[in-house]
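Suppose you are handed a protein chain with no further information: no name, no annotation, nothing but its sequence. What can you learn? This example shows the usual starting point.
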Amino acid sequence: MKRLMGIASMAAFCAASAYAGLLPAAADLPKQFDDIQTGTGTDWVDKYILAPQTTTADARCGDDVIGEVSVEWATFTGHFPGDPANSSGGMLVRGGFKFKNNFKIKKGHKMAWVQAYKETGGAATHTIDTSTNPPFYPQHTVPGYDVGYFDGPVDAFANAVVPTAIDFETALVCWDEKKPKDLFAIGSWLWGYTIDKPNKTIPFGYNLIFSPPLTGKLKDPFVAEFGPAGTRDKGWTLTEGCDDCFEPVPEPATLLAMGSGLALMALRRRKSSK
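A reasonable first move is to predict its three-dimensional structure. Written in structure tokens, the prediction is:
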């Protein structure tokens, strides 16, 4: 399986496409491989099995809605450069998290994604989806989002070992920079697709709404790879919740009232000192 995660300029792609979101309109197919990354390249996407869809849900910290997680997604068939048309298939997902106007990340805290990848059939791989020792999924800049997200898994049907299904769990996490290995998972979403190798198509895809709690699809490999006896690094924790990562942003009227009150207090102090 190949991954399309090195996005140099998603803004360039969106500007080049007639479709104002993740994917081009059907009339623009086939599109370019590098159009999805940089705006130039060779033909890649031949057909979208599922028309582009959007999945959106609130992100909560306790009783507070701190923001929104929204992703566009679609399954497709296509081909790598030099290969026949419709010789590969996969799924594109793009979007991320954006704050509501009345919340922000607290100073000294950070946010990122942690993602688990699981194959059914094929090599039966089940792992945390990262190429580095920290368990974070690669960070992408996506216009309009405070924590951007992009993934584009794709398999060539002619490969000797091809899974029958690929599933992901993607969690939004935050942490205090003073305790950088103690991660808190605000919620996650499940997504994936099935692969019909003989018929060279992607018959099914799904993308569920962002919500707590986490499932074993993410928690089990996280503990195995990054927990107390981790195979990739040790000492990381992943706790459901949001800890003390966020704080409210005062409304403009509140700030104005506070400013007026402070000015009045200062005026009274000046008068009383005379």
